[in-house]
Task: inverse folding
């Protein structure tokens, strides 16, 4: 086993992890430096595929203000959004967005050279900044990753997966065990601050907009370490992912911004059906649009509806959405002429590791930011484009918090940690599990029983089935390869989602129970902790 020491370890290289690395490096002198580990190539993440944009309540847009943004966020969050957190994130957006611009992110501008703001569902005014038309995430991660690779205090370790957090007997996080995908070796990294920025868990579902790496690793690791996990039943299903066939499972997103620019949803009969579901029609909150589409698909026994973008002026359409137009064209669809087949897909994990605005979790030394965290911003239903903003604001606040924290690397390693490390020094059976098949089974189960519409019976069936899969998979800790680790983590995270959904006996935001159609008057969070019973806070 190899051992190394870093003042700070960051797990994940999406917007949250990359920006945290840069801010920590620029604010704090760290004798032992920063290690940024990431499962794939640097920047490969959900962030990279973000299309619509990032919320910016910025001085360049005098028509906007914090109050309006906070109200929109609270309304979408269906009673579970934390007002203080939202206010802070909204107020900090001007500073952070302008910092991104200084770092090199080029947000799109109009012909006068002013920032271009667009509209997305449930925002009361145009406040979304975008880049590269519909490639905001690619442009942000590219600029951040470039700076990270130029920074000599940040060591980047690609193809490296965090597999277990080192927790001392007095319940403090002292580092992490990592798995090198290329060599198959494990390594121990000691650190006094471990930051989880591992993103979401969309891959737990059969249909998703998320890339392959979004397997809920951070939540599973934190749960196993004894951290509080909050509101995991709230999975956001994006209404409009490109649905070419039932077999096309990793789905390309057709951004909400296309509806923001005027595109209309139509069913098989060509009817603009949203008028029957909401007076906000195509720009109703995401959960409302998703359920409307789901209902139309059921009624028409179809695996998709259509998005008619041909109503948008052709030149504007191609200029504003170059990547969406190209991807559709590559699949034989000219979006200025033909409607796009779309269907909902798992998109965003609203719950996560319970963390405050500084990323502090219930375990000392363990921090969580970005999609892996649950700060209370998103409540039961995330407002579009709030998540990239949350990533960068929380990374910024965390760097500030750490600048007042003792970041000396732990010198004395206790018995608890020695025992943990010992597990990874011993070999395990070389019999490989057929994880590809097992993962498909889990995804199907989650889609059918823990998906857009849920019932007690379906959720109980899912819980029993996941528990059985878990019992049959004997690798609780050390695994043979990446896929086994991912399957191990997916089972844990899927069970947390299912248990949380079972415990929420109401419909709220993205959590829709056909057997509990009411929303309780008092909103409460679900909390899961390995060492305690499930509680409602
Ligand atoms: P991610 O960007 O997902 O990064 C997670 C990182 O952790 C990755 O590098 C991953 O490889 C790594 N990782 C995971 N597990 C491990 C492990 N065990 N060990 C090591 N590394 C690990 N939000 C918006 O605000 N606006 C948008 O327009 C928008 N569009 C979107 C479009 C798509 C298609 C998708 C999928 C999401 C979109 N979102 C959007 C949501 C937003 O992109 C994400 O919520 C946000 O980018 C999450 O950033 P993050 O840094 O927390 O996680
Ligand atoms: C989109 O572009 O529709 C996605 C925006 C988001 O997920 O915030």
Result:
């Amino acid at each position: 086993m190899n051992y190394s020491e870093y003042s700070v370890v960051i797990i994940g290289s999406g917007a949250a992890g990359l920006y945290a690395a840069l801010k920590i490096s620029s604010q704090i002198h760290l004798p032992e430096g920063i290690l940024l580990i990431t499962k794939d190539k640097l920047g490969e993440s959900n962030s990279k595929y973000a299309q619509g944009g990032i919320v910016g309540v910025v001085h360049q847009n005098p028509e906007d203000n914090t109050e309006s943004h906070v109200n929109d966020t609270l309304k979408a969050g269906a009673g579970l959004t934390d007002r203080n957190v939202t206010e802070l994130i909204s107020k900090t957006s001007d500073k952070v967005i302008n910092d991104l611009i200084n770092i090199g992110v080029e947000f799109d501008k109009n012909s006068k050279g002013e920032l271009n703001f667009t509209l997305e569902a449930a925002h009361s005014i145009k406040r979304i900044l975008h880049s590269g038309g519909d490639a905001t995430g690619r442009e942000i991660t590219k600029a951040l990753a470039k700076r990270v690779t130029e920074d000599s205090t940040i060591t980047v370790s690609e193809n490296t997966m965090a597999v277990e957090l080192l927790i001392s007997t007095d319940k403090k996080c002292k580092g992490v065990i990592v798995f090198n995908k290329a060599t198959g070796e494990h390594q121990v990294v000691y650190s006094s601050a471990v930051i989880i920025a591992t993103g979401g868990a969309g891959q737990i579902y059969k249909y998703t907009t998320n890339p392959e790496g979004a397997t809920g690793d951070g939540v599973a690791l934190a749960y196993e370490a004894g951290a509080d996990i909050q509101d995991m039943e709230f999975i956001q299903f994006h209404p409009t992912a490109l649905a070419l066939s039932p077999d096309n499972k990793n789905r390309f997103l057709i951004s909400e911004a296309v509806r923001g620019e005027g595109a209309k949803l139509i069913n098989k009969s060509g009817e603009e059906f949203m008028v029957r579901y909401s007076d906000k029609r195509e720009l109703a909150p995401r959960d409302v649009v998703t359920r409307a589409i789901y209902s139309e698909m059921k009624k028409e026994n179809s695996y998709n509806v259509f998005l008619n973008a041909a109503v948008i002026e052709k030149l504007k359409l191609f200029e504003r959405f170059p990547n969406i137009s190209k991807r559709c064209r590559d699949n034989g669809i000219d979006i200025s002429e033909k409607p796009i087949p779309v269907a909902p897909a798992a998109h965003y994990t609203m719950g996560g590791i319970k963390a405050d605005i500084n990323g502090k979790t219930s375990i000392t030394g363990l921090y969580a930011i970005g999609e892996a965290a649950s700060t209370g911003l998103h409540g039961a239903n995330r407002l579009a484009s709030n998540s990239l903003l949350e990533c960068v604001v929380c990374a910024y606040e965390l760097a500030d918090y750490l600048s007042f924290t003792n970041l000396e690397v732990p010198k004395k390693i206790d018995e608890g940690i020695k025992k943990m490390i010992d597990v990874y020094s011993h070999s395990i059976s070389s019999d490989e599990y057929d994880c590809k098949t097992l993962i498909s089974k889990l995804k199907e189960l989650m889609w059918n029983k823990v998906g857009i519409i849920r019932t007690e019976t379906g959720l109980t069936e899912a819980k029993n089935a996941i528990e059985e899969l878990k019992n049959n998979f004997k690798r609780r800790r050390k695994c043979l390869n990446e896929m086994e680790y991912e399957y191990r983590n997916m089972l844990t995270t899927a069970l947390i989602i299912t248990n949380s959904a079972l415990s929420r006996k109401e419909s709220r935001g993205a959590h829709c129970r056909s057997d509990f159609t009411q929303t309780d008057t008092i909103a409460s969070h679900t909390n899961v902790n390995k060492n305690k019973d499930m509680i409602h806070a």
